[in-house]
Structures are given as C-alpha cells and as structure tokens.
Design a protein that fits this description.
The complex is a heterodimer of chains A (about 400) and B (about 220).
Chain A (H helix, E strand, L loop, with lengths): L1 H12 L9 H38 L3 E5 L7 H12 L4 E16 L2 E10 L14 E4 L8 E5 H7 L6 E13 L2 E15 L4 H4 L2 E5 H8 L7 E6 L7 H11 L4 E5 H44 L1 H9 L4 H36 L7 H4 L10 H20 L3 H4 L3 H5 L4
Parallel strand pairs in A: 3-8, 5-7
Antiparallel strand pairs in A: 1-9, 1-10, 2-3, 2-6, 2-9, 4-7, 5-8, 6-7
Chain B lengths: L3 E12 L2 E13 L4 E6 L5 H8 L7 E6 L2 E3 L6 H7 L1 E4 L11 H13 L2 H14 L15 H13 L5 E5 L7 H18 L2 E5 L3 H5 L3 E6 L2 E2 L2
Parallel strand pairs in B: 3-8, 3-9, 6-7, 7-8
Antiparallel strand pairs in B: 1-2, 1-4, 4-5, 9-10
Classes of the chains: A alpha+beta (about 400), B alpha/beta (about 220).
Chain lengths: ~400, ~220
C-alpha cells in the first residue's frame, strides 16, 4: 500500500498544476515556518541565557561557601580543621579563604559602592576564574597598593589600567579631633577583568590579604572559605554542603551556589517552558491554515477521489495519501522554520545594536544555544499539531459519495 | 449461470417535494459475453440502475447477484470487487489530470497489485491495441475528446473485468468519434468475449447491442 501512497504523494507534490504554489498552500507553509522559527528563536535565547548565566555565575563564584556558624570570622584553627577535612573530600577541586568587606570606590570625582575581596592571588588553583577574566593589565596583587577591578566599575569611574582609585572603608574608622575618619587608601589599578556578569563586574575590587585585613580590621581572620568542586559534582553542591555541615557538627554554616541562585534557575526553567507552551499556540494557529489547505485540496480533487473510489481505492488509502502529503510538506516547512530560527537567533547574538540592560538581566549580550533535545522537541510538537490538524478535513473523504460526483452534485 | 442477475430492484431519493421513486422493481439478467443496452429518456433511471449494478450506490430493496452470489454496495470487500470484477466508462472521461495517459490506464491495476512496473507494462499493451501508444506520455488535457474516451475504456479494461458498465460513453463525442468508440467496444466483445452493459439514449447505438432494455418511469417496459 505504501508504494501507492508514495507514488500519489510524489505526483501531487510535483504535479504540473504546481499545487504547492496555490495561495492556501503558501499560507500554510509560511505560517508553519514563521511559528516554528519564533519558537526556535525563543528556545535558543532562553537556553543560551540560562547556560551562559550559569557558566558565568559558576565561573565567577566558588561552588560552596563555608562560614562560621556563630558570630565572628574563621580563624587559623578553623582553617586548619577545614583544610584537613575538605582536602580529603574527593569532590573538592580547590579551596581558598577570602576576606570580604564593603568599601566605597572613588575616582575622577565619581564614587561607587564596591566589595573588597582579599584573596591569595598567588594560589595556582583558585576557586574562582577571575584571573582568567583579566582583559587589560595583569592579575598581580603583590604590591599592597595594587588592585584589580571590574570593567563596569572602571567604566563608571572612568578609570583605565595604571590610573589611581581611592577605596574608603568605614569598617576601620579612626577617631580624630575632627571626628570619625574612615580608612582610606589610594590604589593603582593594575588590571581590569570582565566576568560577563554585570553585578560582579561593577562591584568586586581585588586586593591581597594584607591590604584586605587592614581595611576590614581583621587580624588572622577570614570572612569565609571558598570551595570549588570538580565539574561532575557541581550540581550536587547543595547535598554536599548539607552533608559536610552535618559531618562538621554544625560548627560551620555551609552554603552552596544552588542556595544563592537556585530560585533564579528554577524561574528561568519555568519561564522557558511557559514560553514554549505559549509559542506552541502559534503553531496551533498556523495549523488552521493546514485545515484550510487540506480541505481546499480535497474539494479540488473531489472528482478524482470519487473516480479512484469507483476504481477500488478505499477511503483509508486516500486519507493516507493526504496525511502523507501534509506530513512531507510539514517536515520541510518545520525544518525550514528551524533553520530560519537558528539563523535569526545567530544574528541576534552577533549583532551589537540591540543589547540587554546588564543591571536588569545580569548579562548585557544576547546569547543563544541550540540543543538536540530542543530541536527534536520543536520538531515533534510542531509535526504532531500539524498532522493532527490535517486529520480534521479527512472526514470529507470518507463521506464522499461517488454517485453525487458522477451526477455533478456538490 | 448468469453473470449478473437483478431481482426486484427499487431505489428512491428523498427530495424537498417528497420521495422520488426512480426504480420500481427492476428484474434483469446478463449473460457472460453479452452486450446489453439500457435505453430511456432523461430521468428514466438508466444511470441510477447502472450505479446500483456497479455497486457505486445501494438499493432500497431488491437483490443483485454476480455468478449467483448476493452482492451489496455495503460489503466489506466491495473496493476489491469494484477494482477487479467491474470496469466503468462514464459519459465524461474522468481521467486524472496529474497523470499521463499510460498512468491513468495503469491506475486500477496499480491499486490492485501495488506493482507500478507491471501495471505500466499492461497499460502500454492496451495503448498499442487502442492505437494510442504515441500518446502514452500525454496528459488528459493534451488529448482529443475521442482519445480521452479511448483511454478511459482502456482504463476500464486493464484488470480484465468480468463486466464493463458504460454510462453514455459517447455522450460527449461527435458522430465520427462516437462511431469509432462503439466499433471499438463491439470489437472487444467479439475478440475477448467482453461483457458490456451500456446506458444510452441513442437508439442506433442500442441497435448494435445483443439485447436492449427500455426504461420508462423506473420500470423496464421492453
């Protein structure tokens, strides 16, 4: 039977009458292409945004943070205990203590709030990737007056590598006859980094331990310990944090990147699927054209179908011919829609005139990503809707009366 | 044993003005190898009778037997029966516009065997015998009226049916092509013992058949 179906489909698609150039066929194909392209673009942008945001967050931050449970900071004894415990864990890739304190950064008459991060800049394997994100100058914090700042902060203060920046910390204020004087120090900007995350690039100021300790009035103490996990354990960070917290008898408060960003990624996933469902309705609307086109085709071929029935063709066979024809045209239209969607999405990620507001969307660039799963999903959903729509007018074939056709009745 | 036997066949249609009785108890028998003409005025029920005999429509009452076996248009195997046992030639050729002459002729056999090569070969043999081989790759709109109707006859014969029903086959042809077509059918009957039941209002054509029935107001009067 399939030989007959394929033969008829070939004949109808490549017929001299160019049926596929009929306005209803063109509207059907264009409708599918546009709706599938829209769905593809939306999925590519959401997936790209989610992936890049995750990569940026995980690259810019460590995966697990260890604080002291009680008030206060981690001292040398705590660090020794944690070092012994964490280096024995197979999931851990790197650890490093860090000092964090709030400061004000000023330069060229402008002032911005910032976070000072005192780090062991010489450590080979660091829990964060800022060293790799330096795009101007160097990541050298050997000098106590040297600093590395984010690109957005530098932009806001109009600062370049080699310029001076003043950091002001209220944490280590001194009483003077003139009143309370906050700790102030002028630094030379030795390097600029860009993590891709607006929030980080406009906030973090890196200095060495000694400078950070002086600024925050912390002696032999650290704000927290950052832990980097091996890639295969990153998604299990919340479980590991809980397990270690229990193992260390709740002496430390251990949090993971999932605790801080989990809601954001859950929201993104939810949004992605909601958008997918909403945009699938576009395909549903496009499928109305399929109903119209198949109906027109059946009406136009009514006489032929009647004659084929008179010569022994079952209505099931005739219905399969129409479904097969619609399926082939739909596969082509959906594939073209996906290709068009990929091209437009690529263009959006490449162009520079339309950018996101980094302070609102975290990232200022449209990123796109295409996964096989999404491609298959869009193909499957689109074809299912279109093929189901093509079944609606097929009833006309089964109710076709040969004698009505021979008598010239409509 | 009669090839076809009809007993007390009745058919009516519902119309806005009421029930229209088209056939009122038709009885007839057709033997294998016969050429039968059914004549009558327009509206006498000739085409309706042909459609019932060809299982294209179902009767209100009465029975149709092929080789003494009861047949109904609602039977499960009716598609196969229409494909293999019966051939049709209509007043209008009803050739498929997207298909060439040889493809049109091959169609009933292709539907039956699903073997396009074999069907095409058989179609070409028929095109030779109908003197249409040179027109085999022509589409219906590239053929003359006479050629179109000869292709339609060839299509009706490709599965070697037991009986061919022809509904005013010359109705759209001029006198010359009409004579040619009837001559062709008569020759086929003589050479292959092909059975034909033909509806016509042309009494000259009816006279060339072995037997003729005249329908008037839904009954056979002679």
């Amino acid at each position: 039977m399939y030989k007959v179906i394929i033969y008829f489909i070939k004949k109808y698609i490549f017929s001299n009458r160019k049926e596929w150039l009929r306005s209803d066929s063109v509207f059907m194909v264009v409708g599918i292409i546009v709706s599938v392209a829209t769905l593809t673009i939306a999925q590519a942008i959401f997936e790209g945004y989610e992936t890049v945001l995750k990569e940026t967050i995980l690259g810019a931050n460590s995966h697990i943070y260890v604080f002291l449970s009680s008030d206060g900071y981690l001292n040398k004894d705590n660090l020794a205990e944690l070092d012994e415990f964490l280096t024995a864990q197979p999931e851990v890739a790197a650890i490093s203590p860090i000092i964090i304190t709030q400061v004000m950064a000023s330069g060229n008459g402008k002032i911005k709030g910032a976070l000072l991060r005192g780090i062991n800049w010489q450590q080979e394997n660091q829990p964060t990737l800022y060293r790799e994100k330096v795009f101007a100058g160097t990541y050298d914090l050997s000098d106590e007056n040297s600093t590395v700042i984010g690109s957005k902060l530098a932009q806001a203060l109009n600062i370049k590598v080699g310029d001076k920046i003043k950091l002001i910390s209220p944490m280590n204020s001194k009483m003077t006859p003139m009143g309370v004087k906050p700790k102030q120090q002028e630094f030379t900007v030795g390097g600029l980094y860009e993590s891709g995350m607006y929030d980080y690039d406009s906030k973090y100021v890196f200095v060495n331990y000694a400078t950070a300790a002086e600024f925050s009035a912390m002696e032999d103490e650290f704000s927290m310990l950052e832990v980097k996990l091996k890639p295969e354990f990153i998604e299990k960070a919340d479980y590991l944090a809980y397990r270690w917290q229990v193992f260390l008898d709740y002496q430390y408060q251990i949090s993971s990147w999932i605790d801080f960003n989990g809601n954001l990624f859950s929201l993104l996933t939810l949004e992605k699927w909601v958008i997918f469902i909403i945009l699938s309705f576009l395909i549903l609307i496009a499928s109305f054209n399929v109903v119209s086109s198949v109906s027109t085709s059946i009406i136009e071929k009514r006489q032929e179908l009647g004659i084929l029935k008179a010569f022994g063709a079952s209505h099931q066979l005739l219905q399969k011919i129409f479904v097969g024809k619609t399926l082939i045209i739909s596969v082509i239209a959906v594939s073209l829609g996906q290709i068009l969607g990929v091209l437009i999405a690529k263009f959006l990620s490449w162009q520079k005139f339309f950018v996101l507001k980094g302070d609102v969307y975290f990232l200022d660039k449209i990123n796109v990503q295409f996964s096989v799963l999404s491609w298959l999903l869009i193909l499957g959903v689109s074809l299912s809707i279109v093929i189901l729509a093509s079944f609606i007018p097929l009833r006309k074939i089964s109710t076709l009366e040969i004698t009505d056709i021979l008598r010239g009745k409509n | 044993m009669s090839l076809l036997k009809v007993e007390n066949l009745c058919k009516s249609y519902r119309e806005s003005t009421g029930k229209l009785e088209v056939l009122k108890g038709i009885n007839l028998a057709v033997e294998s190898g016969e050429m039968i003409a059914i004549t009558g005025e327009s509206g006498s029920g000739k085409s309706t009778l042909l459609h019932l005999l060809g299982m294209l429509d179902s009767a209100d009452s009465g029975e149709i037997f092929y080789f003494e076996k009861l047949k109904k248009a609602t039977d499960k195997d009716i598609n196969e029966f229409r494909n293999k046992t019966i051939g049709f030639v209509f007043q209008f050729h009803y050739l498929l516009e997207d298909f060439t002459a040889e493809e049109n002729i091959a169609m009933p056999m292709f539907l039956a065997t699903h073997n396009f090569g074999k069907s095409l070969k058989e179609a070409r043999n028929l095109l030779h015998s109908f003197d249409l081989y040179g027109r085999r790759e022509h589409y219906p709109n590239q053929l003359s009226g006479g050629e179109q109707q000869r292709v339609a006859v060839a299509r009706a014969l490709i599965n070697k049916p037991e009986i061919v029903f022809a509904d005013e086959p010359t109705g759209n042809l001029d006198a010359k092509h009409s004579d040619e077509l009837i001559g062709l059918l008569v020759d086929l009957n003589k050479q292959n013992n092909q059975t034909f039941v033909m509806v016509t209002h042309n009494l000259e054509i009816a006279d060339k058949m072995h037997r003729k029935f005249h329908l008037e107001y839904g009954v056979i009067i002679k």
